[in-house]
Amino acid sequence: MQPAASTDSSTAESRAHDPAGVSLPTVDELLDDAPATDDALPAQPHSRLPQAAVPPNIMLQAAVTRLVEQKEQVDQLARNGLLAGLLPTEWSTSPGNELRAFIASVVPFASDSARGETIAARVPLKFLLGHSQRWGKHDVAEPKSLAAYLGSDDRSVPGNADLAEVMLLSPLGLAWAHAGRGRVGFLRAMGADTLAARVTALPYPAAEQLALYLADCDGMTHVWCVLDKRRLRALPVPSLTLPLLSAYGVGAPEPWPSNWPEPAEVGAELARLRSGKSVVEVDLVKLVDKIGRDRAGEAWSGASLMQLHTWVPRWRFFLTSFIGLPAALLLIAALALPGQIEAAAVAAALGFAGGAIAALAAPWIYARRKHLS
Question: Collapsing DSSP states into helix, strand and coil, what is residue 209?
């Protein structure tokens, strides 16, 4: 007779670790009570969600991965206070929206105003931007259990708690967390590869629509990105933007065209529009029209004093001196003076008043057009 199969704990443990079976994290592992040799996330059950699609461009994927790594390093340094005062001001003008400000300044013309289809999917963390400046793995008492909770497929189901939402620039293969920004860096630190979320596809201009230019303004060389030869945005951190756009297919920066508005005028318009905004865009066509109107306003033209809006007459003094006084003299002359003297006084008074009115209304001076009403 063959001996009965043993049902001790060693056999059960060997089955639990059988590679042919399904490996699930134990209760002790989820509660972080079991001793572990590292902090890696326990093996996750097979996900039922599809993986978000990214362009099959190896160079573009490498550039996106590099940008995500750089953002993670920036977050870590900023969290430790090592970058105080060194980050672009655009990234901190909207507290709570630092990630959106980062996207707007690093990826020009990226917008979530026009949205495509939204599906539940898993997004590779190497292509996903988050915001890890507030908390991380070392701030959590039970990181493994939290990682299992945040990494679950349930985080992509509408109505569930702690729903994750991701915006995906489909042509670039670059995504950023719209809801659940802090968990991205945490799950990455825990060794996770993907994040379950509601993924919304976003469009992005084709590489042929974008052009990069170098312009000298205020004694510095600036890099500007122009869409469709009309909409211009400055690149505050070109070292982060240029590798991404280059891998996308945008040409290298070229000198600023000589037949376009002067760089100084474009820089002045950017400074005028900035005034606390995180995203500043200059319409070159409108700027050309504005420059034309300003130059036309500098031309000299004949005008009257009444057309000038740079001075204000003392109307009470004017009416008293040039209207009231001649009228009083005319009345006195009519009552007391002989006929010939009366006529002369009337003519003098009328001439005096008429000359004063003509001095205001007649175009006898020259002024710049911009000063005319």
Answer: helix
Task: Look at residues 116, 120, 117, 112 and name the one whose alpha carbon lies nearest to residue 198.
Answer: 120
Q: How does 171-209 read in b/e, with b if 16+ C-beta sit within 10 Å?
A: bbbbbbbbebbbbbbbbbbbebebbbbbbbbbebbeeee
Answer whether 282's CB lies under 8 Å from 232's CB. Answer: yes
C-alpha to C-alpha distances, 260 to 184, 288, 293, nearest whole angstrom? 43, 8, 16
| For the ranges 206-210, 313-317, 324-328, the one whose mean pLDDT is highest | 206-210
Mention every residue, 6+ apart, whose C-beta is less than 8 A from residue 5. 11
What are 212's two structure tokens? 């990069």
- Please name the residues in contact with 234: beta carbons below 8 A apart, sequence gap of 6 or more: 222, 223, 224, 225, 270, 280
pLDDT single digits (tens) 288-307: 888 877 766 566 666 665 66
15's CB contacts (< 8 A; 6+ apart) are: 21
Model confidence, pTM: 0.69
Residue pLDDT, tens place only, 23-37: 555 555 555 544 444
CA distance 247 to 105: 18
Collapsing DSSP to helix, strand or coil, 311 comes out as coil
The answer to whether 179 and 167 are in contact (CB under 8 A) is no
Contact between residue 90 and residue 101 where contact means Cβ atoms under 8 Å apart? yes
pLDDT tens by residue, 95-150: 556 788 889 889 999 988 888 889 999 999 999 999 877 777 788 888 899 989 99
- Residue with tokens 């070392």, as numbered in its chain: 138
CA atoms within 13 A on the CB side of 50: 7
Do the Cβ atoms of 127 and 173 come closer than 8 Å? Answer: yes
For 242, half-sphere exposure in the C-beta direction (CA atoms, 13 angstrom radius) is 14
